Amino acid sequence: MATLVAPPNHSPVEDAEALGKAVKGWGADEKAIISILGHRNGAQRTQIREAYQNLFQEDLIKRLESELSGDLERAMYRWILEPAEREALLANLALKRDEKCYQVIVEISCVLSPQELFAVRSAYHNRFKRSMEEDVAANTTGHLRQLLVGLVSSFRYGGSEINARLAQSEADALHEAIKKKNESNEEIIRILTTRSKTQLVATFNRYKDDHGIAITKKLSDEGSDEFHMAANLAISCINDHKKYYEKVLRNAMGSIGTDEEALTRVIVTRAEKDLKEIKDVYYKRNSVHLEHAVAKETSGDYKKFLLTLMGKED
Amino acid sequence: MATLVAPPNHSPVEDAEALGKAVKGWGADEKAIISILGHRNGAQRTQIREAYQNLFQEDLIKRLESELSGDLERAMYRWILEPAEREALLANLALKRDEKCYQVIVEISCVLSPQELFAVRSAYHNRFKRSMEEDVAANTTGHLRQLLVGLVSSFRYGGSEINARLAQSEADALHEAIKKKNESNEEIIRILTTRSKTQLVATFNRYKDDHGIAITKKLSDEGSDEFHMAANLAISCINDHKKYYEKVLRNAMGSIGTDEEALTRVIVTRAEKDLKEIKDVYYKRNSVHLEHAVAKETSGDYKKFLLTLMGKED
């Protein structure tokens, strides 16, 4: 369930007028901007962007970029986009960073549904005039490249059928491949990039039943290079993306300071989807409410905005 | 341009009734079936299937399968399907053959537009309850697998931009990779599976200008294993698919007997698209009209059907 609280009836024109007032003159009225956009769903935000363009002959996104700053600006910029466009942007930003971060690439490829991933690839074409896979491929080499390009390009079957014999034989194949280390990465790549999610979860369960250890644990025991880390992330995202996001949030608010980028990413991308359940997982794991943790780690209008998206006014 | 001659106004119900008459009793009226279905486009054929189902509570495809036989049956079965469903079927048949034939996989992946290829992948899900890439991956190994899975999974950027510097650097990279033989196949795979078609054609032209030899010629000089053959096919399909189809037709009607499967495939899949231009290329290359060659190599109702799709009544 979503945490976003959006009224079913809103007037895009009135919202656009109110936003026009909030960005007028010196210094924007951040609270007004948050109280409007932090309570509108994707379709509503798109209507507001259109109404704003018509009223003021100006792109609302560009205007907000120039009026806001810091973490709030980045969070609002991500929030206001349509989901597919936002994920395409996040992927591109991850690929352009100096310190390459493949986590976002794996996350988008493995958490989204096959149809959603395809929508992101289309949005990537429109926005960057290139394919997502060619940018991934140009930034990587070897087995890591094979794995990431395969994940990004996947269009998994979405049905709920499970082939138990296949789960057994591929759990065995994964076991052999992990033991042989880098010799047999190709089998790991083939299985992780092509099978349906339902089938893969059955395979991972089979693995755990047969070997008494989670495949992610075994993989990280055997290697800590980029390939092993990416394979591990992919398995976590496919296995249970809510648990995966709980961990991202926990690490983002860990002892070595706050990772605002990860915090913003998870809250903005999940607020309209299943942040409610992720909050529950977080509470079970940490005995702290996610809102309290976020409130402690952030401040000012950025904090206000994140809490608003989480359905909690501060 | 298409060669198919289809009247804009037709009555699906009248067509379905006429087909019902043609398959009634002992022995079907092949000529009547050909004269109807051989003159209807994809949307019209789908309407006829629906009308037939409503009228007779029976699947027209299944009925035709039981009434027709041999090459005509196979050609009609392929023709009557929607393009994406047909290509999914052709891919699946190619993967199930004992003597593996990757030509069809490469052809579908590289001739179709990115959006069309995605429609085929969706149709494959619906029909076979698996992804096309998982069947390709399960049937292949090594570099051939990487290449084929990459081609099948590609969603190339479809714009017309050319980056001349990139064309130069990747023409150089391809040259180095081909020289080093199997050591550097991964660069060939990366370039062929991710770049836009427009960009790739620029790269192949750059290669020819720099080295005085077509990259396909160089590739087949350096290796004749399955990987090299598949890479070569991919380049031919991307470079000029009409020339590619001319060659498929020429080989299908070569000196060692007729390859009805290839002949049917090209005529059925291109009759509604660009068989007119392929006929022109064929005539230029062979000084024989394609219709004459087909008429010489085939016979009976099968011949009549192919000629009808080519816009030529015999």
UniProtKB/TrEMBL annotation, chains A, B:
One term of GO molecular function: phosphatidylserine binding
Binding site for Ca(2+) 2: 257, 297
Gene Ontology biological process terms in this record: response to cold; response to heat; response to salt stress; response to water deprivation
SUPFAM superfamilies: Annexin
SMART domains: ANX
UniProt xrefs under InterPro entries: Annexin, Annexin_repeat, Annexin_repeat_CS, Annexin_sf, AnnexinD_plant
Transmembrane segments: none
Binding-site positions, Ca(2+) 1: 25, 27, 67
Pfam family, one: Annexin
The keyword Aminoacyl-tRNA synthetase appears for this protein: no
Keywords noted in UniProt: Annexin, Calcium, Calcium/phospholipid-binding, Metal-binding, Repeat
Protein residues bound to Ca(2+) 3: 295, 298
A GO term from the CC aspect: cytoplasm
Domains: entry comment: A pair of annexin repeats may form one binding site for calcium and phospholipid.
The family this protein is said to belong to: Belongs to the annexin family.
Protein name as annotated: Annexin
Source species: Phaseolus vulgaris
Classification of source organism: Eukaryota, Viridiplantae, Streptophyta, Embryophyta, Tracheophyta
